[in-house]
Design brief:
This protein is α/β, with parallel strands linked by helices. It has helices at 41-47, 111-115, 118-130, 147-158, 172-178, 189-196, 213-219, 232-238, 252-262, 279-288; strands spanning 2-6, 16-19, 30-39, 57-58, 62-70, 82-86, 96-99, 101-104, 138-142, 162-166, 181-183, 203-206, 226-228, 241-242, 270-275, 294-298. Strands 3, 5, 6, 7, 8, 15 and 16 form a 7-stranded mixed sheet that branches. A 6-stranded parallel sheet has the order 11-10-9-12-13-14, sandwiched between helices. The protein has a 3-stranded antiparallel sheet with strand order 2-1-4, with no helix packed on it.
Length: 300
């Protein structure tokens, strides 16, 4: 099968399309013929050697496609079913991928839209669970217009929370459409948040990693009420919890998202799609930081 791989660390130019042996599912896993695979910031961090020192490495943790092989004990899907989910092997950007966690693709979504979901909804759900966001909570999200941020906004609103989100002014109407009260980034953030949320916020989630953890701590009345998924160094410096999958992933989000999508309460836009062979260009655009919505590779 064709797959994305790199054998040295560096810029997007180190990415290659190579031939690898076809994978096969283990117990409880399924193999899919990949139709689409998501692109995430962790991809270029891996490519640059910031996350894993091993070489060579394949790429991709989320994909959507058609089941073509079942692992032992799998009875909840059949060959030919459309599913989306996670490749724990990190090899989803390929023609074939083994998924360890998966769910049926909602009827209204195409493959690209489904491939955009897993990382964003798992990260957002995990953070909201850790912050105990529920009905009546007031939540501040720093970086609310990106894929993880907009997923967190919609999932929090669906739980009955009141959400304030930071974004550039160009994205304020978008945040309002998701149910959040928008505020601008930059100096004066504390005052702007207090102007739209005069009763304060219970908890804060940092998705952007833009160096505002001290302000979030002030607004949420303590570091114990703040979580970041993007600022590891800042988390250590300020005593804030850094949420990662190491403590357990919120894979239950996969099964629950379909109902929200079909009821019109959740959507995650796909900003742009690329053929698998153009993965380097997808990295260049993603690292530029200006895409609103997910970047997705099309494998079939």
């Amino acid at each position: 099968m064709k797959a994305v791989r790199f054998s040295r660390f560096g810029g997007p130019e180190v990415l290659e399309i190579v031939d690898l042996p076809d994978p096969h599912p283990g117990p409880g896993q399924v193999r899919i013929a990949v139709r689409a695979a998501g692109v995430n910031p962790s991809d270029w961090k891996k490519r640059e050697g910031l996350m894993d020192g091993e070489l060579p490495q394949t790429m991709g943790h989320e994909a959507a496609g058609v089941v073509d092989e079942l692992g032992q004990g799998v009875a909840d899907v059949a060959v030919g079913d459309r599913v989306f989910g996670f490749s724990t092997e990190g090899a989803a950007q390929a023609e074939l991928a083994v998924l360890s966690y998966y769910a049926p693709i909602p009827a209204s979504l195409d493959f690209a839209g489904a491939a955009a979901l897993p990382t964003a909804i798992e990260t957002a759900t995990r953070a909201l669970d850790q912050l105990d966001v529920g009905a009546g909570s007031t939540l501040l999200i720093n970086g609310a217009s990106g894929s993880v941020g907009s997923a967190a906004v919609q999932l929090a609103v669906a739980r009955g929370a009141r959400v304030t989100g930071t974004a550039s002014p160009a994205n304020h109407d978008y945040l309002r459409s998701l149910g959040a009260r928008p505020v601008a980034y930059g100096e004066g953030l504390v005052e702007r948040v207090r102007a739209v949320a005069p009763d304060g916020v219970d908890v804060a989630l940092d998705v952007a990693g833009s160096g505002v953890l001290p302000e979030l701590i002030e607004l949420a009345s303590g570091r114990e009420h703040v979580i970041t998924v993007a600022d590891f160094g800042g988390a250590r410096e300020h005593g804030v919890a850094f949420s990662s999958g190491d403590a357990g992933r919120a894979v239950h989000a996969l099964a629950g998202i379909g109902q929200l999508i079909e009821s019109g309460r959740f959507s995650l836009p796909v900003a742009q799609t690329f053929p698998l062979a153009e993965v380097a260009e997808a990295h260049r655009i993603g690292e530029g930081g200006h895409a609103r919505g997910k970047l997705v590779l099309l494998a079939g």
